[in-house]
Amino acid sequence: MDRIVCNPEILGGKPVIKGTRIAVYLILDLISEGYSFEEIIKLYPHLTTEDIKACIRYTSKTEDQAWLKAELGELPPYDWGSEGPPKGKPVQYKSGIGLIIAGDKQ
């Protein structure tokens, strides 16, 4: 992961490719729009295939835990109405999958 860095002085601390001001999200947006690695490198000739792969790896490693960092204390209280909150099954977090019903053997 040493190809991806976060520095408060560069793009407000967003993850970028080391030695550049190219944000990880920019590369991921290009990939999602159908750009190939070769096309991205034509746009940014100083990048390598390994830089692009590092962006994908970085996201896959951090995305699973992004919800853990949410500052839920800043949210306003939700009005569930007279019925109160809906009843549901207890859930648990499973790494690499997300939330699952507690006790399931996935």
From TrEMBL:
<dbReference type="InterPro" id="IPR036388">
    <property type="entry name" value="WH-like_DNA-bd_sf"/>
</dbReference>
<dbReference type="InterPro" id="IPR009057">
    <property type="entry name" value="Homeodomain-like_sf"/>
</dbReference>
<protein>
    <recommendedName>
        <fullName>DUF433 domain-containing protein</fullName>
    </recommendedName>
</protein>
<dbReference type="Pfam" id="PF04255">
    <property type="entry name" value="DUF433"/>
</dbReference>
<dbReference type="InterPro" id="IPR007367">
    <property type="entry name" value="DUF433"/>
</dbReference>
